[in-house]
Structure formats: C-alpha cells, structure tokens
Amino acid sequence: MHPDLKTAVELQRVDLEIAKLSTQVDEIPSQIQSIQAQLNHSLGAHEERKLRLTANQKERRDLEGEIKVIQEKISKHKDQLYQVKTNEQYRAMQREIEGEEQNIRTIEDRILEKMVEAESLQKLVQDAAARLEDEKTRVAGETKRLESARQAAEEERSQRLARRATLAEGLSASIRETYERVRRGRNGVAVAEVRDGFCTGCNVRLRPQMYNEVRTGESIATCDSCSRLLYYAEPATDVTEMAEGRNHQVAL
Fold first, then answer.
1. Do 136 and 188 belong to one domain?
2. Same domain, 24 and 75
3. Looking at the domain assignment, is residue 122 inside a domain?
4. 135 lies in which domain range?
5. Interhelix angle for 3-81 vs 87-170, to 10°?
6. Per the domain annotation, does 244 fall within a domain?
7. How many CB atoms are located within 10 Å of the residue 72 CB?
8. Could you say which of 28, 30, 226, 244 would form a disulfide bridge with 150 (CB–CB 3.0 to 4.6 Å)?
9. What is the strand order of the sheet 229-232 is part of?
C-alpha cells in the first residue's frame, strides 16, 4: 500500500476515535444533569409532601380551635337557658345549641378526614425519606463514575490528538490537503474501503480500471462520486474454509 494511503487510513481511524471520544465528553455533562434533575424532582416531591403534612396539622389545630370556641358558646347558651322568661325563648335557645352541636359534629368529621390524610402523608414522607438517602448515594456514585469517565475520555482524546498531529505531519502536503478538505465535507470521513468494486463511502461502483488501481495500492485514488481516498483490504480468510481445504487435500 502506498505510504501516504496507509497513513491516511490510520489517520482516519484515529479521527473516528477522536470523534467518538468527543461525543462521550460532550454527552456526559447532560447525563449528570439528567440524573441530578431526577433526584431534584424526587426531593421536590418529598418537600411538597412535608409541606402538605405541616399544612394538614395546622388545619387540624385550627378546626380543634373552632370546636373549642363553639363549645364555649354552647356552655354560655346553656347558662342562659335558666335566664329566659318564655317557652319560646327557651326553645329558640335550645335550637341554637343543637345547631352549634351539629357544627361541632361537622368539624369533627373534617378533623377525622384530616387525620386519615395525615396518616397517609406521614407514611409517604417516611418511606420517601428512606428511599431518598439511597437515591442520593446512588446519584453521588453515578456522578463520580461519569466524571471519572469524562476525565479518562478527555485524557485519551488528548493522546489521540497528539497521534493525529504526528500522522497528519507524515502525509504529503497534497494528500493532507485532500484528506482535510474531504473530511470537512463528508461528515468526518475522508477515507473509504473498496469492497466488491464498490466505494463503501457512497456505495457507487468504481470503474474497472480504477478498481484495479485501488487493489494494487501503489497509487492514490479518489472516488469519482464522493471524492474520498480509496483503499483496498484483502478479505480475511475464513478459518473454517482453511480447515476444510486442508482436509480436502488430505483426502486426495
């Protein structure tokens, strides 16, 4: 294979590795942000339940305070029963007392509802508190792992960039210019393998003469369709086929 072509193939491999590492480095912050957002959502829901529980307890205290006020009114009205002068006034006072006692029963029903709600909220708060501690530990561990992975990817990318600089310097000026120009215009891929007479970069069949030139590897050829540098790799011999071939020879 032509030295420049061999270098270009290696340079392409390194460039693809750099692109993959860059994607990894770029994506990790959003992954960290995503798991942190999930944790923050759970924390927010937990705080909201705690606020609801606090509000529930205040509402129950307020209702209990209302009952106390009504009970005091009832006690006062009962004392006034002995001061009324007519049966009509007496009955009116009794109806008022009965209405206030009904108000107490209504408020007690509301307190009971709040107690049931508080019991449910208390269980949710307690269960969530236990889960959140585990979740915080998990998120902290996952964040640390991702940050370590990002640092490792950055270090590996730096090594690949240094290797790339060496390879690019080793190319002749004209081939380097062609490589960089095509790479910019072809989604980062400037070199393509030829298989069965087709350019794997654009899937266009090569002219027979060019196909033969590429197979020799003695000169630099570019695809007429996509302008990528072309190279040919001998297909790997299948191990099973080799074994069957040897067995056939022995049988003969």
1. no
2. yes
3. yes
4. 3-169
5. 170
6. no
7. 10
8. 28
9. 198-199, 191-195, 229-232, 221-222
Q: Tally Cβ neighbours within 10 Å of residue 243.
A: 10
Residue after which a domain boundary falls, among 169, 188, 212: 169
Q: Do 108 and 182 fall into the same domain?
A: no
133 and 184, same domain (yes or no): no
In the chain, the number of structural domains is: 2
Domain boundary among 130, 154, 169: 169
Residues 10-28 pLDDT 10s: 999 999 999 999 999 999 9
pTM of the model: 0.67
Lookup: tokens for 179: 């490589």
Bridge partners, 205 (sequence order): 198
Q: Is the pLDDT of residue 239 over 60?
A: no
User: What pLDDT sits at residue 251?
Assistant: 44
pLDDT cut 70: percent of the chain above it: 93
Residue 127 in domain: yes
The C-alpha atoms of residue 252 and residue 244 are separated, in whole angstroms, by 12
Give the model's pLDDT for residue 71: 93
How far apart CA 135 and CA 201 sit, in angstroms, is 46
SS (H, E, C) the chain: CCHHHHHHHHHHHHHHHHHHHHHHHHHHHHHHHHHHHHHHHHHHHHHHHHHHHHHHHHHHHHHHHHHHHHHHHHHHHHHHHCCCCCHHHHHHHHHHHHHHHHHHHHHHHHHHHHHHHHHHHHHHHHHHHHHHHHHHHHHHHHHHHHHHHHHHHHHHHHHHHHHHHHHHHHCCHHHHHHHHHHHHHCCCCCEEEEECCEECCCCCECCHHHHHHHHHCCCCEECCCCCCEEEECCCCCCHHHHHHHHHHHHHC
